[in-house]
Automatic annotation (TrEMBL):
InterPro entries the record matches: DHBP_synth_RibB-like_a/b_dom, Sua5-like_dom, Sua5/YwlC_C, Sua5_C, T(6)A37_SUA5, TC-AMP_synthase_SUA5
Keywords assigned by UniProt, alphabetized: ATP-binding, Cytoplasm, Nucleotide-binding, Nucleotidyltransferase, Transferase, tRNA processing
Domain YrdC-like: 15-200
Protein residues bound to ATP: 60, 64, 118, 144, 152, 196, 238
Compartments in which it is found: Cytoplasm
UniProt-annotated binding residues for L-threonine: 37, 69, 122, 142, 182
Name this polypeptide is given: Threonylcarbamoyl-AMP synthase
A biological process from GO: tRNA processing
Residues in the signal sequence: none
Catalyzed chemical reaction(s): L-threonine + hydrogencarbonate + ATP = L-threonylcarbamoyladenylate + diphosphate + H2O
GO molecular function (one): double-stranded RNA binding
Keyword presence, Hydrolase: no
Length: 349
């Protein structure tokens, strides 16, 4: 398949590429587009055949449902019920990095919801994304625009690397501002439950209903026999091409432990990549060291996370060591992605 690639500068919503891409979406094609979380791989959410081709392009397991992206808050036609909690969340956090799980209407095809009676819906804040959806005139099902299992793409270049030749159109914009996938909240249960942590933190959600809690499977590795509340929870995700370990504990201990490991690796000619921070990057003297930014601003860390993970695929390393972060605020989402990238290989020091 020939893929057309257009970068839109300065969120120019009059760019004719947007109209061309919107027409492709309406007609059942696949379009990659920027959002504030990560880049999305979109298709008309109401067209089963188009949605099916998303799974094929990504190599995504069929039982992993897709999030429907909308351009405005008129979602009555997609759901059978909007609870008062969901309504409050929409008012407060849409547009933005928050996906709400609600009971679906009959119009949503089974392939989009992966056979579930519920559907995830999100209104992105990215203007190119919204203009594209608005012009297409249909809701857009869109998972992250990466090959299944790889780190999510936050730049045009990452999407091209994974999906060129597999989709009709790739629209580029700026690097995704949040850098992590949306927070997912299940609004069909009482009390409401966070199924995936993201840029909208638990503290922010608690301002709407203080009973909101995080599903325990997010903080710990899931037992293989457990049935996940969000199907995506059980899959290996975000994995770099080489094994990765997270070193967790007090920062001083982490640095000391990584240096000790590096000494052994050096003696055995094992090449190491280190995911560090501004505070620690000068404390290491072996390996390829990359900083995610300062620990004082975890939004920068989340912004840089996936791009840094991906960039190690172009480095000559045999394994990656990553520092842990405090699991509070957006740190919960950052650690969730790091743990998955490492396949839950965590060393406590
Ligand atoms: P992705 O689009 O790859 O970022 O992943 C979307 C994730 O949203 C999936 O992995 C699911 O876990 C979750 N999701 C989407 N729809 C539903 C739903 N109806 N119920 C529970 N989780 C959902
Ligand atoms: Mg994904």
């Amino acid at each position: 398949m020939k893929t057309k690639i257009v970068k839109i500068e300065n969120e120019n919503l009059l760019d004719k590429a947007l109209i061309e891409a919107a027409t492709i979406l309406k007609d059942g094609g696949l379009v990659v587009f920027p959002t504030e979380t990560v880049y999305g791989l979109g298709a008309n959410a109401l067209n089963s055949k188009a949605v099916q081709s998303i799974f094929e392009a990504k190599g995504r397991p069929q039982d992993n449902p897709l999030i429907i992206h909308v351009a405005n808050k008129n979602i009555d036609f997609l759901v059978s019920e909007i609870t008062s909690f969901a309504k409050k969340l929409m008012d407060k956090f849409w547009p933005g990095p928050l996906t709400l799980i609600m009971k679906k209407s009959d119009i949503v095809p089974n392939v989009t919801s992966a056979g579930l009676e519920t559907v995830g819906i999100r209104m992105p804040s990215n203007l190119i994304a919204r203009q594209l959806i608005e012009s297409a005139g249909v809701p857009i099902a869109a998972p992250s625009a990466n090959l299944s299992g790889k780190p999510s793409p936050t730049t045009l270049e990452s999407c091209v690397e994974d999906l060129k030749g597999r989709v009709d159109f790739i629209i580029g914009g700026e690097m995704s501002k949040v850098g992590l996938e949306s927070t997912i909240v299940d609004c069909t249960v009482d009390p409401p439950c966070v199924l995936r942590p993201g840029g909208i933190t638990l503290e922010m959600l608690k301002t709407v209903d203080e009973r909101v809690y995080i599903d325990s499977a997010i903080l710990n590795n899931m037992n293989q026999n457990e049935k996940p509340r969000a199907p995506g929870m059980k899959y290996r995700h975000y994995a770099p091409n080489v094994p990765m370990k997270i070193i967790s504990g007090d920062l001083d201990n982490i640095v000391e432990y990584i240096n000790k490991m590096c000494q052994e690796y050096r003696n055995n000619s094992i090449k190491v990549g280190i995911i560090a921070t501004e505070e620690t990057k000068n404390s290491y003297s072996y390996g390829i060291i990359k900083s995610l930014g300062t620990r004082k601003d975890l939004n920068t860390v989340s912004y840089n996370l996936f791009n840094t993970l991906r960039s190690f695929n172009n480095e000559d390393v045999d394994l990656i060591l990553g520092e842990s972060f405090l699991e509070e605020g957006i740190g919960i989402a950052i650690m969730n992605r790091l743990k998955k990238a490492a396949g839950y290989d965590i060393i406590k020091v």
